[in-house]
Amino acid sequence: MTAVAGxxxxxxxxxxxxxxxIFFWSLAAGLLTASIAMVTLRNPVTNAVCLVVAxxxxxxxxxxxxxxxxxAVQVIVYAGAVMVLFLFVIMLLDVKAExxxxxxxxxxxxxxxxxxxxxxxxPKLVAAFPAAREPLRWSGQANSFGAKELxxxxxxxxxxxxxxxxxxxxxxxxGVVVLxxxxxxx
Amino acid sequence: xxxxxxxxxxxxALSGLLFLVGLAGVLLRRSxxxxxxxxxxxxxxxxxxxxxxxxxxxxxDPQVAVFFVITVAAAEVAVGLAILVAIFRLKxxxxxxxxxxxxx
Lengths: 186, 104
What we know:
The structure holds two protein chains of two kinds.
Chain A: H1 2-11, H2 13-40, H3 44-64, H4 68-92, H5 97-100, H6 105-127, H7 147-154, H8 159-180
Helix pairs in contact in A: 1-2, 2-3, 3-4
Chain B: H1 8-28, H2 32-57, H3 61-91
């Protein structure tokens, strides 16, 4: 895989850079559009679908960063398991209640001012960080990590954390069962 | 300069914008379900910055951190949604405005 990418780079670096730009800008635009739609639209099912779109776009961005295994995990865990959970809960709740309430315009205005202020500050913030100006080549460089490298780290350096995560998931599962149990005994 | 080669700064700026959108969602939306979805957006913005930084440094460790973040986020969503369902059974609403018992 890396060898093929290396070949492509040595053949035509300008074409690779152009492709890199097209991927980044289209994915960034899609990701931001989907997330803004998720925050602003009022039907919860639409929100959930927008979130799925945003998460898949982010998985594609992970691929452009060479994190292929994480992209797969992102799609399976987030876009798969977590979103099914959200949709099930939407099914259980009264989802139309939110849409019937008026929009709190003063609060929206306050947050909008804050958001605009920070957005204007982002270029300065990034420019203050010299490393941020160096290009990230997503091909032709041997620093893309897949399941092999991550697995090696997970089972050696981060083995205690990995085992703790197992305990965390068990506790979460038991907690969810306890929280959702109806008191049938008493 | 902005439209030139894709730099680490591009990914960090995108991550910052994504975080802002999520933060606006957490602050503005009153449905607890949408607030939780916005929280997912916040975690994803942090994940993007981590993966980009790891790519820049050429080390796989940030990806391991993202792996753990995804796992913990899945557990968090499960517990959070269970609490949401329990609250809905009790009060028949999921709007944050209706849970003001502890508010002065």
